[in-house]
Design a protein that fits this description.
The complex is a heterodimer of chains A (187) and B (366). With 187 residues, chain A is an all-alpha fold. Chain A has helices at 2-54, 62-81, 84-105, 109-113, 115-150, 154-157. In chain A, α1 (2-54) packs antiparallel against α2 (62-81), α1 (2-54) packs antiparallel against α5 (115-150) and α2 (62-81) packs antiparallel against α3 (84-105). The termini of chain A are far apart. Chain B has one domain (2-361). Chain B has helices spanning 2-11, 22-54, 88-115, 126-142, 175-180, 183-198, 201-228, 232-238, 242-290, 293-305, 336-341, 347-361, and strands at 65-69, 74-78, 119-120, 148-152, 159-162, 170-174. In chain B, the strands form 2 sheets. A 4-stranded mixed β-sheet of chain B has the order 3-4-6-5, with helices on both faces. The chains are: A mainly alpha (187), B alpha+beta (366).
Chain lengths: 187, 366
C-alpha cells in the first residue's frame, strides 16, 4: 500500500515538472512570436518614408515601387486579419519586393550619396535583419517546444495536458522566395 | 571529410566545451568564476600569513620559552618574541582580498571600460548607428536584452565584451574595426561577443581582469617592501629558535618570495588558458547565431592582417578581446610555447575550424 502511494506521489511530481517545463517553453515561443510581430510593424511603418524619399530619383522604376506599395498594403491587411498562413504569404511577397528595390537602388549613385536615403536604407536593412533573426529565434524556440512534447514518454501526456505543436515560420510552398534567382548577364 | 573533422577535434584543446549545452556552459563558467575568486582570496591569505610570519614574527605554533618568574618562584611559559599577538597582516590582507573580489564583481565592467577609455556609440554617425543596429540584431538572434554599445578610440582592429550578466552587458569595438569591416563582418564580430555574453564568459573574464590588476599591484608593493624590509635571516634569528627551524624557514621564505614575484605572470597565464578555450566556442556559437561562418572568416582575416598592437587595451584586459591586442606574432606560431603564452588560439586554427563549419553548413546544391 505504502509503496503504491509513494509511486503515485512520484508520478504526480514528475507530471508537475513536465507540465511546468512545457508551460515555460510555450510562453517563450509566444514571446518570440510577438517579437516578429513588432519587427513586421516597424517594417510597415518604414516603407512609406522610404518610397517618398527615393521616388524622385527612381522614377524609371515605377513598377517596382508600386509593387512594394501594393505588397505592403496586402501585408498590413493580412496582419489585421490574423490568419497565420495569409500573413506568411503576404510578408514573403513584401520581402521579395523590398529585396528587388534595394538591389535596384544600388544603381543610383545619387541615392547612395543622399544622407537621408542612406539612413533609411540602413534602417531597412536593420529591420529586415531583425525580422530574419527574430524568425530564426522563433523557429528555434518552437522546435525546442515541439521536441519536448514529442519525445517519449511526454508524448503520452502532452495532448492530455492541453499542449499542441507550434507551427514553424516557413515560407509557403508556392512562395516566390523559393525560386532560384535568375541572373541575366546580357547587356 | 569525417577524418578531417576528427583530426581537427583532436587538435582543438578545449573541444569538450563544444559538447556541453548552453546551461552546462553557464554552470561551468559559474564554477570557474567561483574558483578563480577563491584562489584569489587564498593567495591573499598566503601573502598575509607570510607577511606576519617573516616581518612581524607572528608564530603561534612556536615552542613557548620557559622563563623563571622571580615574583612567584615558578617557570612561566612565554612567547618567543615580543611581537604582537594579533596577525595584523593576515587580517588586513584577507579583508583586502575579499574587498577586491567583491569590487571586481560590482565595478569590474566599469573598470575595464575606463581602462580602455571607451565611450558610448552615438546615434549621430552613420557607422556607429550601424553598429548599434547590428548589436540590436544579434541580441534578437540570441534572445537576450540589448547590450550597451561602446567605442574604443584606437585605430587597430579589436573588440571585447564585458559585464556581470546579460542584462548589464557591454560590447565594445575599436574605431579601426568599425572603419574597415563591412556590415556582415561587423555582424559576425558582434555575434562572437554576444556568445561570450550568452555563455557568461564575460563575468569570468571581467573578474579575472580586475583581479589580475589587483595582483600585479600588490605583488609590486610586496616586492618593494621586501627590498627595504627585514629579510628572512633577520626574521629567523630574531625568533631565537633559529637552530632547528632555520633551513625550513628559509625554504618557506624562498617559496613565498617566488610566489610573490611570479604571481602576476601566473595569474595572466591562467587567464590565457581559460580564454583560449572560450574563443573557439564563441566563434562556433557566433557563427550559429548569424548562420554565416564565411563573414566571421573574412572578419578574422582582416583583424589578423592588422597586426599593429591595440594600444588602448592593456595587458590585463588582453584575454577579453577577440584577437590578441598585443599584436605579437606569437598568435601565428603553433606549438607548446605559443599554446602557453598566447591569449588566443592561433588565427590559423580558428579560421580552419570555421571553414570546416562553413563546409558542413553549405547548401548541397552544386
Amino acid at each position: 500500500m505504502l509503496v503504491f502511494v509513494i509511486v503515485l506521489l512520484g508520478l504526480g511530481a514528475w507530471m508537475v515538472i513536465i507540465f511546468n517545463g512545457l508551460v515555460t517553453l510555450r510562453n517563450r515561443v509566444a514571446n518570440a512570436f510577438r517579437q516578429i510581430d513588432v519587427q513586421l510593424k516597424r517594417r510597415h511603418d518604414l516603407i512609406p518614408n522610404l518610397i517618398e524619399s527615393v521616388k524622385g530619383e527612381m522614377k524609371f522604376e515605377k513598377e517596382t515601387l508600386e509593387r512594394v506599395i501594393l505588397a505592403r498594403g496586402a501585408a498590413v491587411s493580412a496582419g489585421q486579419g490574423g490568419n497565420m498562413n495569409e500573413v506568411l504569404a503576404k510578408e514573403g511577397m513584401l520581402t521579395q519586393a523590398l529585396g528587388k528595390l534595394m538591389a535596384l537602388s544600388e544603381n543610383y549613385p545619387n541615392l547612395k550619396a543622399n544622407e537621408a536615403v542612406r539612413t533609411l536604407m540602413e534602417e531597412l536593412t536593420h529591420t529586415e535583419n531583425q525580422i530574419g533573426f527574430s524568425r530564426q529565434l522563433y523557429n528555434d524556440e518552437a522546435t525546442k517546444f515541439n521536441t519536448k512534447q514529442q519525445v517519449f514518454p511526454t508524448n503520452l501526456f502532452s495532448a492530455m495536458l492541453g499542449f499542441s505543436a507550434s507551427d514553424l515560420w516557413e515560407l509557403p510552398a508556392d512562395s516566390p522566395d523559393r525560386e532560384t534567382p535568375k541572373v541575366n548577364l546580357a547587356i | 571529410m569525417n577524418s578531417a573533422v576528427a583530426r581537427f577535434r583532436s587538435r582543438v584543446p578545449g573541444f569538450r566545451f563544444f559538447l556541453m549545452n548552453i546551461y552546462e556552459q553557464q554552470a561551468s563558467n559559474r564554477r570557474m568564476t567561483a574558483m578563480v575568486m577563491a584562489a584569489f582570496v587564498a593567495f591573499f591569505l598566503v601573502i598575509g600569513l607570510g607577511f606576519d610570519f617573516f616581518y612581524l614574527s607572528f608564530n603561534p605554533g612556536a615552542e613557548p620559552q620557559l622563563k623563571w618568574n622571580t615574583a612567584g618562584g615558578y617557570y612561566e611559559a612565554q612567547k618567543a618574541s615580543q611581537a604582537s599577538n594579533i596577525p595584523f597582516g593576515t587580517i588586513i590582507s584577507l579583508l583586502a582580498g575579499l574587498g577586491m573580489a567583491a569590487n571586481s564583481m560590482f565595478n569590474g565592467p566599469a573598470m575595464v571600460l575606463r581602462s580602455t577609455m571607451a565611450r558610448r556609440a552615438s546615434q549621430g554617425s552613420d557607422k556607429e548607428k550601424q553598429f548599434l543596429n547590428v548589436v540590436a540584431e544579434m541580441a534578437t538572434a540570441a534572445g537576450l536584452p540589448v547590450p550597451a554599445a561602446y567605442i574604443v578610440p584606437d585605430p587597430d582592429l579589436n573588440a571585447f565584451a564585458t559585464g556581470m550578466n546579460p542584462e548589464t552587458s557591454v560590447i565594445a569595438v575599436t574605431e579601426g574595426l568599425l572603419a574597415s569591416l563591412n556590415r556582415a563582418e561587423l555582424q559576425a564580430v558582434v555575434a562572437h561577443e554576444m556568445s561570450h555574453i550568452r555563455n557568461y564568459d564575460i563575468r569570468l573574464m571581467t573578474v579575472m581582469a580586475a583581479l589580475i590588476g589587483a595582483i600585479s599591484l600588490l605583488s609590486d608593493f610586496t616586492r618593494r617592501s621586501m627590498r627595504y624590509g627585514r629579510g628572512a635571516g633577520s626574521a629567523a634569528s630574531s625568533r631565537g629558535s633559529g637552530k632547528r627551524g632555520g633551513a625550513a624557514v628559509l625554504i618557506f621564505f624562498a617559496i613565498w618570495a617566488v610566489l610573490m614575484i611570479l604571481a602576476p605572470l601566473l595569474s595572466r597565464l591562467m587567464a590565457m588558458a581559460i580564454s583560449r578555450q572560450r574563443e573557439f566556442l564563441a566563434d562556433a556559437t557566433g557563427a550559429e547565431l548569424t548562420r554565416n561562418p564565411a563573414a566571421l572568416i573574412s572578419a578574422l582575416e582582416k583583424i589578423r592582417q592588422a597586426i599593429m598592437p591595440t594600444n588602448a587595451v592593456n595587458n590585463g584586459v588582453a584575454h577579453m578581446c577577440i584577437a590578441d591586442p598585443r599584436g605579437s606574432l606569437i598568435e601565428e606560431t603553433m606549438g607548446f610555447t605559443a599554446d602557453l603564452l598566447a591569449t588566443h588560439p592561433p588565427m590559423e586554427k580558428r579560421i580552419l575550424a570555421l571553414k570546416v563549419m562553413a563546409y558542413q553548413t553549405a547548401p548541397s546544391r552544386a
